[in-house]
Design goal:
Layout lengths: L2 H32 L3 H27 L5 H88 L6 H15 L8
Helix pairs in contact: 1-2, 1-3
């Protein structure tokens, strides 16, 4: 490689270092927004470094045919350091604003879709109400009449007989509720 090609590759690697710093700021903001705990941070760090390793390897392949020399490490470190010292605060603020904007847009789109769904479903809800309201009124009237008849007939015929199934379900619940699996030491 000539000196000009090495300088060009060094500038390319320096740009890769700057982009690595930007990716790290994005991950920091994402970790802050999601409030990751210990395990989430571990998994996120692992995924971030795997992603960064693949991206830097791809940049190395494109920039200098995958040759790893001292100036590659120097360029990556220098680029990431320049980004973290000079551009990190502004980048994090910009990333936070973009994420806030995207979340608001997502909320607005979802609210619009829900409003559209309510508009579409409204005629069907009215139709269901028109059909079921009289049925419910008749059912309520029959329940009132039935409860009066049931109270009056209870004095004459005795208490009402429970259905067999409700007694069976109660017995099964009582039977299974008492059962406990045996302990290891017993």
């Amino acid at each position: 490689m000539t000196l000009a090609e090495q300088l060009n590759a060094f500038l390319f690697i320096l740009l890769a270092g700057l982009l690595s710093g930007l990716a790290y700021d994005f991950y920091r903001v994402l970790r802050q927004v999601l409030r990751l705990k210990k395990t989430g941070t571990f998994v996120g760090d692992l995924l971030f470094w795997l992603f960064l390793m693949v991206a830097v390897f791809g940049i190395l392949l494109a920039g200098n045919d995958g040759e790893v020399r001292f100036y590659v490490f120097l360029g990556l470190a220098l680029g990431a350091g320049i980004h973290l010292i000079f551009f990190s605060q502004a980048a994090r603020r910009m990333i936070m604003r973009v994420l806030f904007f995207l979340s608001r847009m997502t909320q607005m789109i979802i609210a619009g879709m829900l409003a559209l769904w309510r508009i579409i479903i409204f005629p069907f809800r009215v139709l269901i109400f028109v059909i079921t309201w009289p049925v419910l009124q008749v059912r309520h009237a029959l329940q009132l009449a039935g409860s009066g008849i049931g109270r009056a007939s209870g004095k004459f015929f005795g208490p009402r007989v429970r259905r067999f199934t409700s007694g069976a379900f109660t017995w099964w619940r009582r039977f299974t509720g008492r059962w406990r699996p045996p302990r290891d030491g017993q």
